[in-house]
Amino acid sequence: MDYCTCGAQAVGRCVAGGEPFCRRECRTYPHTVRDLLAEAGEQPQAEWHGLLCPSCYQDAIEVALPTVARHLLRTEAGSIERVVHRLASRRGWTDSENYNQTLGPDIISAVAGQRPAWLFNSLPRTLAALYATMARSRSLAPRLRVQNEEVSHTPTLFNRHKTTTTVTQLDELRAWPFGYSTDRGFSRRIYVGAEGILLDGDGFGGPIRDGTMTMRGAPGEVRRRLNEMNRKLAEPAHEGYFDGDAVDVLAHAVSRLL
């Protein structure tokens, strides 16, 4: 009985290297790379046709990368940013047929000749960092005016109440905001900062009108929430969960600066 390198029982052997693999480690040639090779008039080498182990799967990608990179540079007019947008909009960042193995960073690094500073394994984080880089180069500052709206009720005669609304200007939120609706009809917003990204679903934010966001609540609590947002937006590690709708919004934001 054969065993995979991970210790699990093998279900087959790699057609290229002959190594046994389990069900989890089984790979096939990535469709994104195959499609790009086809556009370039090429096809994968015969030895990669069939089931592959993880090592040969990665070898197959590396062999194809020079051809893929030349093709993308030619079709996208030499723009690395356009290549990122293309992979994002065509769902080519990960390999959905192979447990979502990440392909984007290898392809982008091959196109660029080195790994750009804004490139991460995560597509949302890459798109956000790329947008921030492009926006700064166009002198677009991440600034959103913020005000606090506090509503108080004061008892008056005959069991009535007087409602008073107090508006206080606060510090700026250092972010570019992007609103969108999910396929389930929920309204959400993404905040892209100089480093990090946030979703308003994390419990932050408020309605935006005429370039000003209104946050409601006690002044001290609102200031704490605003400071927390700015802190997270300055942390590269903070990302949160991003669905496909959010990725589309970020990709569209990048496309507007291309």
Walkthrough of the structure:
This protein has about 260 residues and is α+β, with helices and mostly antiparallel strands. The chain is about 35% helix and about 20% strand. The protein has seven helices and eleven strands. The protein has helices spanning about 30-40, 55-75, 80-90, 105-110, 125-135, 220-235, 245-255; strands spanning about 10-15, 20, 95, 100, 145-155, 160-170, 175-180, 185-190, 195-200, 210, 210-215. Strands 6-5-11-10 form a four-stranded mixed β-sheet, covered by helices on one side. It has a three-stranded antiparallel β-sheet with strand order 7-8-9, sandwiched between helices. A hairpin with a 6-residue loop joins strand 1 and strand 2. Helix 1 (about 30-40) runs parallel beside helix 2 (about 55-75). The mean pLDDT is about 90.
